[in-house]
Design brief:
The complex is a heterodimer of chains A (252) and B (292). With 252 residues, chain A is of the alpha/beta class. In chain A, 36% of the residues lie in helices and 25% in strands. Chain A contains 11 helices and 10 strands. In chain A, 50% of the residues are buried. The chains are: A alpha/beta (252), B mainly alpha (292).
Chain lengths: 252, 292
């Protein structure tokens, strides 16, 4: 079964055509990495997968993104419902500054959908924080503001926040690019552990990171897909000369 | 080539830099003191002139007859100001914040530009124009002066302050927080109400405080709409007194004792605005501390 399938996707910012006929399949239980130089459209592509692209003024999308066979750009599809099932973590950690650590972790549970009793919330918060590998570090200070954590912890808090609403797909948009190497390593380990339960798509400009965490790799250039295949193949015996040049560090 | 030579050549530059630094520091301190002088002067003057008028009677009694004015008070002005400004706040704050939200979060194109233009024009409109406008619209239509008309004239002045200031503080909330909330599957309005507005809380509070402080001291529009009253009035359809009206009135009478009352009223207004400013500061500091 395929979880997310992108079919001939085009995207624009105003009159600027930034994605040209992209095709991609992200399978459940695997990590798909999107790599490419700055400005190649990686972030735009991942933001098309949960309809965040259209939040930018003047942005437009054409094509299909099939989620379990349903086009999330279908006319009767509510983007809010899409985002509840396809979670996202951003480049810069963005915990909600007015909320405590626990309230951040349970924000999705508390603010969308039905009212849950306190005990259920605490339970869901703990489960999410454990899944994000943050529980042991914060369990004694759940009432402190989320902004008081270190950058790496904040990012794991954001991962917990995304996990708490139990999505099926997790989109990670350069989740470690603002973090130090130790925090980066923790995030990568986390991604490796999460893929058993989720379909994961990660954008990274760090090729080593893509090689370490992903099963499938998509290489993009100027808004077009150059190559898509198993990570090992893309990094060792790519079909396209440009892919080889990029992954061997000859440009980019 | 040696390190010593480098150090020596840096010497005079450093000296000039230090002199410049000292010069600018002194200059900025002087500016700060100069700005404070008129402020403290006014404050002290008002306190020294007005403190004598403050008495139990001043806060609890209506004006006494012209034979023994010092036996009376201006309680009807305090009640009236509370009524008029309260009415104006209840209308202008929600309206202003909603406009600010619209401008910062939803508005684009001509509608937003038009609203923004109206707000900026109103912001710089003389307040007496707001009074005349409401006089023509409400007083003439209803056939009498009233607290309601007074409140509405203040709404005209408060709305643009709240709208423009809240747009500005909402725009300061990082885009990443909006995206974070939307990506969790929150509808846009909920992302705004539960994430964006609380983050801008201190700023929104300041916006409201600015508008209330402005309304407290307004005289001209209230004069044209609420008229004034020598007795306590709590009916929003009837003429109502206000502290600035009373100050204006008493400042022009030939009765010496009432001049003191005018200063007393001015002092109370000053104290109220100061209290508002300080409590806003305390509340927003508390919120900032919770965030950082």
């Amino acid at each position: 079964m395929r979880k997310v399938e992108i079919v001939d996707l085009n995207a624009w910012f105003g009159s600027n055509h930034v994605l040209h006929g992209v095709n991609l399949t992200a399978r459940p239980g695997s990590v798909t990495a999107i790599i490419g130089p700055s400005g190649c459209g990686k972030s735009t592509l991942i933001r098309c997968l949960n309809r965040m692209h259209e939040e930018v003024r003047g942005a437009r999308v054409e094509g299909k993104v099939l989620f379990d066979g349903t086009d999330i750009y279908g006319t009767d599809v509510d983007p809010v419902a899409v985002r509840r099932r396809i979670g996202m973590v951003f480049q810069r950690p963005n915990p909600f500054p007015t909320m405590s650590i626990l309230d951040n972790a349970t924000a999705g549970l508390r603010l969308s959908g039905e009212r849950l009793p306190r005990s259920k919330l605490a339970e869901g918060g703990e489960r999410a924080l454990r899944a994000a590998g943050l529980w042991d570090e914060v369990k004694d200070r759940l009432d402190e503001p989320g902004g008081r954590l270190s950058g790496g912890q904040q990012q794991r808090l954001c991962i917990a926040r995304a996990l708490a609403v139990e999505p099926e797909v997790i989109l990670l948009d350069e989740p470690a690019s603002a973090l130090d190497p130790a925090s980066t390593l923790r995030i990568e380990e986390l991604v490796g552990g999460l893929k058993e339960r989720y379909t994961i798509v990660i954008v990274t400009h760090n090729m080593q990171q893509a090689a370490r965490v992903s099963d499938w790799t998509l290489f993009m250039l100027f808004g077009e897909v150059v190559e898509f295949g198993p990570t090992e193949k893309v990094f060792t015996t790519p079909d396209d000369k440009r892919t080889e040049d990029y992954v061997t560090g000859r440009f980019g | 080539m040696s390190a010593a030579a480098g150090t020596v050549s840096l010497g005079p530059v450093r000296g000039i830099r230090r002199a410049k630094d000292t010069g600018f520091t002194v200059f900025l301190w002087t500016c700060a003191v100069l700005a404070l002088v008129p402020l403290t002067w006014i404050a002290f003057y008002v306190v020294s002139k007005g403190i004598g008028a403050l008495s139990w009677n001043f806060f609890t009694k209506e004006p006494a007859g012209p034979l023994n004015p010092q036996e009376g008070g201006i309680v009807q002005s305090f009640v009236g100001t509370g009524l008029i400004v309260g009415l104006a706040t209840v209308i202008a704050v929600p309206l202003g914040i909603l406009s600010g939200i619209y401008l910062a979060e939803y508005g684009k194109g001509r509608t937003a530009s038009a609203i923004r233009l109206v707000a900026y024009v109103l912001l710089s409109t003389p307040s007496i124009v707001a009074g005349a406008f409401i006089w023509a619209l409400v007083v003439v239509a209803l056939g009498n002066f009233s607290a309601l008309a007074g409140g509405l004239s203040l709404v005209v002045l408060m709305w643009p302050i709240v709208a423009i200031a809240s747009e500005a503080v909402l725009r300061l909330v990082p885009q990443e927080l909006r995206e974070g909330a939307l990506a969790l599957g929150l509808p846009r309005w909920k992302a705004i109400v539960r994430v964006v507005m609380p983050t801008a809380g201190a700023g929104l509070l300041t916006a409201v405080m600015l508008a209330v402080a402005r309304a407290l001291g307004e005289t001209a529009p209230v004069l044209l709409t609420a008229l004034g009253n020598d007795y306590i009035n709590t009916d929003i359809r009837a003429p109502t007194d206000a502290v600035p009206l009373r100050v204006y009135d008493y400042a022009r009478t030939p009765v010496e004792a009432l001049h003191g009352f005018a200063w007393g009223g001015a002092l109370v207004l000053l104290a109220a605005v100061l209290f508002l400013a300080i409590s806003t500061r305390v509340l927003s500091n508390r919120q900032q501390k919770r965030i950082a």
